[in-house]
Amino acid sequence: MTKSLRRLFQPKSIAIIGGGAWCEQVIKQSVGMGFSGEIWPVHPKAAEISGHQAYASLADLPAAPDAVFIGVNRHATVGLVARLSEMGAGGAVCFASGFAEAVAEDETGDDLQAQLVAAAGEMPILGPNCYGFVNALDGALLWPDQHGCQRVDRGVAILTQSSNIAINLTMQQRGLPIAYVVTCGNMAQTSQAQIASALIDDPRVTAVGLHIEGFSDLRDWEALAAKAYKQGVPLVALKVGASEQAQQATVSHTASLAGSDAGAQAFLDRLGIPRLSALPDLLETLKLLHCYGPLPSGDIASISCSGGEASLIADMSVETTLSFPPLSNHQQAQLRDALGPMVALNNPLDYHTYIWRDEDAMARAWSGMTGDSIAMTFSIVDYPTTDAADWACATGAALKVRADTSARFAVVATLPELMSPEVATELMAGGVVPFLGLREALAATEAAANLHPPKQQPVCLPGTAEATVTLSEAVSKLALAAHGVLTPQNRTARGMDAVAAAAVQLRPPFAIKGVGLAHKSEHAAVRLEVQAEDAATVAANIGTAEVLIEEMITDTVAELLVGVMRDPAHGFVLTLGAGGVLTEILRDTVSMLLPVQTADIETALTTLNCAPLLSGYRGKPAANTASIVEAVLAVQAYVLANAETLSEVEINPLLCTPDRAVAVDALIRKA
């Protein structure tokens, strides 16, 4: 661990300041977990608390404590933190609420939180509004409530901004060894990323699960991702805030900035951190990573004694990036030897029940579904809740497969309740992943197969100036053209004579647009295929004082949207997608954070539903991908040059032809 947090998370002495049930629980939980260090209650009146001698004040303690749980009101907490910092304590958990998270009800909360941070100085603090942590490796718990953790020699770390979710996660009955649970609270001083960075220095931590409500310092997260990848400790996240309601709840609960969900997803992608959408998925992914670490691919195999289950897993995998490669000749030979001629060999495989209860034969058959080309093999087994004695052979066969082959192997219950905690623990002890739930198993496997190195280049941090100016289309195009974006030849004109003069200077047919309207097509202010002799009349009919007349692009293969939005929480979000008037309906987009490279853009384009149009659909010519990439990089160049003042850039559409990519409409908003 980092020097600043080691004493807090691995203490030799714990002080508990305050009385009442919360503080007594901190003592009881550490004692119950077998903490071998000193426990010092601090209370001005009590002689002893929960069987431990109490000290009247901090000055009476035998030494500066390594870890302190402060369970008094918020105003007293600030003064105590100052005194602990002065005496050289290792760190403190600030349990009290009423700080920045309560600013909507009490406007003094922000100021009080600032006072708390100042009082702490160089001493690390967790919270405020924080339950603290469980260290199940050393039995050190600064935790004022129940929990479900047990002592372990190694395991995963879980960090969450919600103390209630943390409690619930400790109660899991899935065989997952949990080394640390840390609640972050308001993160007034120490961020979630900094906490995770400290925990992965403990070699007993195998993976880290992050429940994230909002990112604070992006540079902390970038440093964490780089460090975790270098040290081989995988990170996975459950990031909330996809809904408007969740974002509102996040701000009021933790005073953290949620930002846009597209930006959050793009940031996680950039960090190489897979994102889960549910707590069971997070736990199952951590379980897999604890056993095997990241998977080399999404190639999986499944074996079950029912065709229904084989069909079920095949159908459920359709919406994932996982795949079932065909059986190799070696696999087929091994399976035929184990199963005989009555079983049709496929992946997924229904092996029927001919060999049920024959543990060795089951192990030989299940081993046949492993191999160098398979990242994870599933054996689907549902243990009955009535009498599971006849299913002991399945547990034994799975353990034998792992012992004999060293292959990555999992036993999967289609429903979470169809595998007992005892079976899950036995499988985990033998290096077999016990997946509780078929959907959860697929989600976990997909996540473990999608871990990748973080981007080395840091995200571009935007300025904070509010956008006050929306540039006209013509001015926007000029600004972008100066950085390399191709635009049609055009003229801005007022009055019929000026339009007629502009028509002579340009090559028809023309697009004529009204100037000063945000959504010109909705006002019938865009006219296409206009000939020179009709230009003046068409311009007059549009009805705006000024029009933009430009040469039309006639050999279009596809229309794209290229947009960049300033996201205060995550940076500049680049969105690529299907463009034109149906952009909002199609919602065919992909988002990334700037800066991006050529390969990033090329890969992103292939993920779009409209990608076949770009590559040439049904004999039609293909778009010039290199020109599209150049256009996107040119937009990026403009953004990076104006990062302090820029709010939004949009090209819609970028007309893609076999030869070039041309921005025929553009918008810029900036300070």
Automatic annotation (TrEMBL):
Residues 8-99 form the CoA-binding domain. Keywords: Ligase, Tricarboxylic acid cycle. InterPro entries: ATP_grasp_subdomain_1, CoA-bd, NAD(P)-bd_dom_sf, Succ_CoA_lig_flav_dom, Succinyl-CoA_synth-like. Pfam families: ATP-grasp_5, CoA_binding_2, Succ_CoA_lig. SMART domains: CoA_binding. Signal peptide: none annotated. One of its GO terms (molecular function) is ligase activity. The keyword Isomerase does not apply. This is Acetate--CoA ligase family protein.
